[in-house]
Amino acid sequence: MLQVDHVISERLTTEVPLVREVAQYIISAGGKRLRPALLLLVSGAINNQNPQRHTLAAVVEFIHTATLLHDDVVDESTLRRGRETANERFGNAASVLVGDFLYSRAFQMMVDINDMRVMQVLSDATNVIAEGEVLQLMNMHDATIDEAAYLRVIRSKTAKLFEASARLAPILAGADAHTEALCAQYGQALGTAFQVIDDVLDYEGSTDELGKNLGDDLREGKVTLPIICALRAGSDAQKTLVRQAIEEGDVTHLDAIRDIIVQTGALDAARVSAHEEAKRAIDAAKQLPANAYSAALLQLAAGLLERRS
């Protein structure tokens, strides 16, 4: 990861001061760096020592960071990773344009790799992520969204880059199709579980733990799995209150909504769904060569279910 950070620092060079300032602001905020770490762990599990893995790990972090910059503008977010979002600090225009810079820099780095399969996986992933963002926008304030529609969004918007990160390792290694499919399955399932837990924490955690404002999903009119489960199990009065909050983006009754989500068992139901996805990831990882890296992949999937921030 230190080598990845070195690549990130090296490739953020630009003669435009504002680009450098905004990009460094959001990247220096830290975060979990899960996607590049995933690429490196899968590389270790299949004994891929290709030095280009560090460049590709930086590429997926740049793509992820670009999506964060754009997401926060679309969602009008003010807090991420415990501090002001880039759009809150520098304005929407700077955030969008620097996000574009990071996307284009990521594609420059992909070209340096000079592998068409790598280009295909990452360009397809970037396109699917954009489709997921638009799907989510279309679903805003729609209380009729069901679990299938919700999963379609998060498998596009979040899990696709996890899947691509895990798939790139066997591609670099020239591994067989079965190994590539196992790695891709692990990444997609892990990314799906990660997002379900993230959506649970929007109603279960605290602002200090999460580094973002609680109730943001409700304010933005996002119908996430805890809401879907609450609408499925709640009383008529509870469903009316939840629907009204989603359709109007009203956080006035946030505490009451959180109580409903807890009382209906919606958080537990959502965690069951995350557990099923984590099990899919574990099943895939168990078929990879047994070593310290594949053990870490198993631990990562299992530990995700205990996530509180």
TrEMBL record:
Cofactor: Mg(2+)
Keyword annotations of the record: Magnesium, Metal-binding, Transferase
Claim: 4Fe-4S is one of the keywords in the record: no
InterPro entries referenced in this protein's UniProt entry, alphabetically: Isoprenoid_synthase_dom_sf (IPR008949), Polyprenyl_synt (IPR000092), Polyprenyl_synt_CS (IPR033749)
Pfam families: polyprenyl_synt (PF00348)
Top class in the EC scheme: transferase
UniProt GO MF annotations: all-trans-octaprenyl-diphosphate synthase activity
UniProt-listed PANTHER family: ALL TRANS-POLYPRENYL-DIPHOSPHATE SYNTHASE PDSS1 (PTHR12001:SF69), GERANYLGERANYL PYROPHOSPHATE SYNTHASE (PTHR12001)
Protein family (similarity comment): Belongs to the FPP/GGPP synthase family.
Name of the protein described by the UniProt record: Octaprenyl-diphosphate synthase
Organism of derivation: Hydrogenophaga laconesensis
Lineage of the organism: Bacteria, Pseudomonadati, Pseudomonadota, Betaproteobacteria, Burkholderiales
